[in-house]
Amino acid sequence: MSSESGRSRRELLRRTVAVSAAAGTSLLAGCSSLGEVVGGGETTIRAYDLPDIDRDAEFESPVAPAVPVTIQPAHLAGARERAVTLLGELPMPLGADEIPNGHVRQEITDAATGAREAVSDALTAQTRLRALQSLQNAREDARYAAAGWTVADRGLTEMDGIPDLRRELAAEHDRAVSDARETRAAHEHVGADLPRAVTIHARIERLLYAAVESDPPREGGANSLLAVAEWGAAAERVHGHLADARHLTEQHRASLGDDPPTVEETIRTAGEQLYETLGSRRTDLPSEPTADEWGIRERVLDDLLFTTGDDTSAADAIGPASAVVDATEQLARFGAVERLQRRVERDELGRPESAGDVVALRTTAYDALDSALASATVPMLARPVVTEAGWRVIAADRELATLRGDVSVSRLDDAVADYVLATTLARATPAAVQTVRDALDSV
Q: What percentage of residues in the chain have a pLDDT greater than 70?
């Protein structure tokens, strides 16, 4: 795992270790953290003995997204400056004199606040790609707020000015989409190292897809000012995605030297082979759970099968590189289902009986994230799947952070399911990556 994600993991686990030590001490002192059965009913666990997770903390996946190409500081600075410039147009804090409608004023204020927070988040992001994503969010929110403020500042109304401004922003959005469409059509899949090329081009494909397929705001909103704000954000969204895609393309090409080889057909063929493998393995998947009362197994299995059961082909992906990346996740999910089934057969998937069991599940999940990146033959192909698994760990952490008092073990089902899902998905990732690497090598 990268040093950045390692630091994140250590910080998140710091309190868990302390809680584990405290729980052990309490046992020796006669104050048990084991679950108790109250009144012959369901076993309960004291929330005090569970991992101490700050409910107000900023939750991010312990494994941040990354791309194996240098994102220049100047590009990040440009995106940051764009957001800051837009925010500078607003006379914060906004009051009733600026925007009389309280609901509208709060919407604009929240967008400006979100933009400032996203700019701040970018400064402490684990990776430059994560910083770029934060700045994209900052730009959208800042443009939303700035466009809405333009209506209020100029005193525009639906009868005078708003339709013209809305048409102006819609035209800007459409021109940006047209530029993105041309860029997407002209994009060349080049590279020397196939796994690196797949990872970079998949990211570019997704940025261009987000730009080209950017949905315009729905007409007929309840408030004209907010409708203009939506158009501003929509236009900025396309500008941001297109700028980032172009930057990654330029940086990738600069790293290859003159006349880099074209690898699109190679990647496309590998994707098709991988989807054939997925098709043959899909028949072995279990049926979706239909139990009236869902336990841990049903929750995890339903989540894993959410995408694995789709009858898709490589042609359905947004691009050839994305098909390979998508296949990697699908293969990992297939492997996770198999691992889950084995745990069920060994009767290893019951509800926790003590706070210590929950602590162990959480620690195991975080360790699985580390191990997946460390043991994968191509960590850059593993990272997207492990990042997703990391989000499930964070979902469980958020759930635990809300608990107080005595907690019934069934109340922990969602958190436990997320820890189990993250663990099984992460542990299945190295084998999935190896299958993908073999496919790339065989073409």
A: 89
Q: Is the four-CA dihedral 159, 165, 167, 173 of positive or negative sign? A: negative
- Could you give the C-alpha distances from 439 to 324, 356, 433, in angstroms and in order? 10, 42, 10
Band the pLDDT of 20: cuts 50, 70, 90.
Answer: very low
Residue 220, sorted as left (phi over 0), alpha (psi -120 to 50) or beta, turns out to be left
Residue 25 has pLDDT above 60, yes or no: no
Q: E-assigned strands of 344-442?
A: 406-408
Phi, psi of 159 (to 5 degrees): -90, -20
How many C-beta neighbours within 10 Å does residue 345 have?
9
Q: Work out the angle at residue 288's Cα, subtended by the Cα atoms of residues 282 and 292, and round it to the nearest 5 degrees.
A: 170
Q: In DSSP terms, which residues pair with 103 in a beta bridge?
A: none
- Give SS3 for 408: strand
Contact (CB, 8 A) for 297 and 289: yes
3-state secondary structure of 406: strand
The identity of residue 175, as a single letter, is R
For residue 1, the model assigns a pLDDT of 37
> Distance between CA 50 and CA 110 in Å, rounded?
33
User: Does 179 or 3 have the greater pLDDT score?
Assistant: 179
The two three-digit tokens of residue 174, written as one number: 């459409």
What are the backbone dihedrals phi and psi of residue 354, each rounded to the nearest 5 degrees, phi first? -155, 165
Give 365-400 pLDDT, tens digit per residue.
Answer: 999 999 999 999 999 999 999 999 999 999 999 999
Residue 214: predicted pLDDT: 84
**CB 198, CB 440: distance < 8 Å:** yes
Output DSSP code: residue 157.
Answer: B
Question: Length of the chain in residues, anyone?
Answer: 443
Task: Render pLDDT for 57-98 as a digit per residue (tens, 0 to 9).
Answer: 778 999 999 999 999 999 999 999 999 999 999 999 999 999
With a CB cutoff of 8 Å and minimum separation 6, the contacts of 346 are: none
If you compute the radius of gyration of the chain from its CA atoms, what whole number of angstroms results? 25
Q: Kindly state the DSSP code that residue 224 receives in the 8-state scheme.
A: H
CA-CA distance, 189 to 206, in Å (whole number)? 14
Q: Are 410 and 359 in contact (CB under 8 A)?
A: no
**Domain residue spans in the chain?**
3-57+268-442, 73-254
Q: Which residues contact 62 (CB under 8 A, 6 or more apart)?
A: 5, 8, 9, 12, 366, 369, 390, 393, 394
Q: Measuring CA to CA, how many Å separate 330 from each of 13, 34, 184, 364, 422?
A: 29, 38, 25, 22, 14
Residues 221, 227 contacting (CB under 8 angstroms):
yes
Query: What is the phi/psi pair of residue 19, to 5°?
Result: -65, -40
Q: How far apart are CA 64 and CA 73, in angstroms?
A: 18
